[in-house]
């Protein structure tokens, strides 16, 4: 994990080379994927939490010794990378933690100065990994919060500053709470005896299914493999550990199995203004198949993933690439589609289950407009 | 409280026996009952609004359990709970003066207010409104902080004892306001037909052909209003088996001089190509824009979609339900007596229970409702205007508070 992360830290910027690898999807793969064949052993090691946690904590402590010394622009990215490496922290949490750290180390004496400094840091963070939607959405959200707070009731700069830091650091909790809320809201949608299709690994979807299982609901899960990082294997492993009957499919077997499916549950990397979602490759085709067979598609996503983007088609996004291992050498002169994500338009989604409540796709733009206009 | 109990039990019994017909009557009677519950409620010295809301919730729980299919009951209970909250907040915002009686059911807000009574009224009102509103992106980062960021000593403890006289008058005012607001709600339920039919001329044009199914009072008033404005149009009425309410509507329309044709339900698809617009009533509108409507409606909606005919649903806002339908065909449906379909004597020889394992060979199923998914609905016309199905959530956010979706007494839930 260490050398990988170092590599990602070195060269994640898509502008540097043609086959630029998306740092966001790199992190996802590190956290959720089972790249090697002995994935069971790996998962078992991950399951024995206490020991690995201790190791993690030690590693964190080591890194945290390094990170806070930095102030000014360069520190944001280090701080962000530090948080990003924690498997439980969402990317948005890492971004907001990093921005909160900027505020803490800032020597600004007025709100205006602080805002400018923060703007610089957030721009830097955003351009560092332009492929991550939740990163830029979280930066925007926090900037918006800072702007609104400054001309709110606080007269004293220090009070405002400490409040901003405190709120930023609470964001991890907010994120966890959001997942819990989503899990609670979605319980009504899972009925006894139903079959749920999930695509790859998603923390929120796992939380939903976990809660349903602990509510003694009886249901079956079909889990896609989630090539190329095979995050679905990790998902199925965790589901099986919870005692949920689970079946793994290859990604191309979705249409074949759709008639036994009652509903599709997917997570999202980002929810865009149209109400559609951007998610790992394959989500769009699953939604299309589900739509044509009249099966509901539910998206479980935290509201801080709502992004001010309006993709018009699949190619209308910052390209996010990832290496794909085909197992055999690719013939010379053959191109490989390495895009890591796709866009699912809103008409193929039934409902969004978010911490703001159960929403129809059209609510997303409403929320965004309320916040940013 | 004991004074209203007989009233409550009487209404519960009526609901259980399905003696109250139609969501309008149910909504109105529920609102009236809740008004008397509120007026009989004895206000305590602290937390009046919470106690009041709890009393309403207790009654509401019984009413909803009495007939869970009749969603209008739950809607009105939630509306009243929302009213109590709103009135409470507006009264706190007006007479802010060191009163720690927010009595918000929302705990965060409660503690927030107690912590710093010196905050300006405007700020407090803003926070109160935030607490009332559904969670949004705007409040994602800032909802909890008020109570934690600035911790000032609770200086209002001494005040609250000294101002008990002031408080009781405040409590009376709150109660009075709530009763007045429920009165407004009842008026709104009564006048919803007028509000809806005012919009009729905007939607029904000269020489159009309208199709409807069964009989809905809202639809009737809507068509009447267009007729009164000298619009000439024709109406196809599908009879609405098995209750044949369509026959009644046809008679009523003819009396007003509307050109009317009665067709069987099964002829809807044959006629739909000649129709300009389908206008129907509803039993309830769900939060996703789906409609619970009299049986046969889904077929009409599908026929309308096939021929790209606008499918318009007219309904008062008391039919707006903040819940999402889960398996609505089964869970939000009611099976009525088979006597609507068959005469009792007619099939008596088929009802032979002695065959096989004691189950008769003939089954009669008489469901009351259909679920029409939101994608089949073109437009909703409510008393607040025309809305697309995907906009229903907005109206719901206006009428209900998010934490009232489950009507249950606080004491039992916590």
Automatic annotation (TrEMBL), chain A:
PANTHER family: TRANSLATION INITIATION FACTOR EIF-2B SUBUNIT ALPHA (PTHR45860). Gene3D superfamilies: Translation initiation factor eif-2b, domain 2, Translation initiation factor eIF-2B, N-terminal domain. Belongs to the eIF-2B alpha/beta/delta subunits family. It holds the Pfam family IF-2B. The keyword Transport does not apply. The keyword Cytoplasm applies. InterPro entries: eIF2B_alpha/beta/delta, elF-2B_alpha_N, IF-2B-related, IF_2B-like_C, NagB/RpiA_transferase-like. This is Translation initiation factor eIF2B subunit alpha. Residues 1-21 are annotated as: Disordered. It is found in: Cytoplasm, Cytosol.
UniProtKB/TrEMBL annotation, chain B:
SUPFAM superfamilies: NagB/RpiA/CoA transferase-like (SSF100950). GO terms for molecular function: guanyl-nucleotide exchange factor activity; translation initiation factor activity. It is found in: Cytoplasm, Cytosol. InterPro entries: eIF2B_beta_subunit, IF-2B-related, IF_2B-like_C, NagB/RpiA_transferase-like. Gene3D superfamilies: Translation initiation factor eif-2b, domain 2. Belongs to the eIF-2B alpha/beta/delta subunits family. Its main location: cytoplasm. This is Translation initiation factor eIF2B subunit beta. Keywords: Cytoplasm, Initiation factor, Protein biosynthesis. It comes from Oryza punctata (Red rice). Pfam families: IF-2B (PF01008). One of its GO terms (cellular component) is eukaryotic translation initiation factor 2B complex. Component of the translation initiation factor 2B (eIF2B) complex which is a heterodecamer of two sets of five different subunits: alpha, beta, gamma, delta and epsilon. Subunits alpha, beta and delta comprise a regulatory subcomplex and subunits epsilon and gamma comprise a catalytic subcomplex. Within the complex, the hexameric regulatory complex resides at the center, with the two heterodimeric catalytic subcomplexes bound on opposite sides.
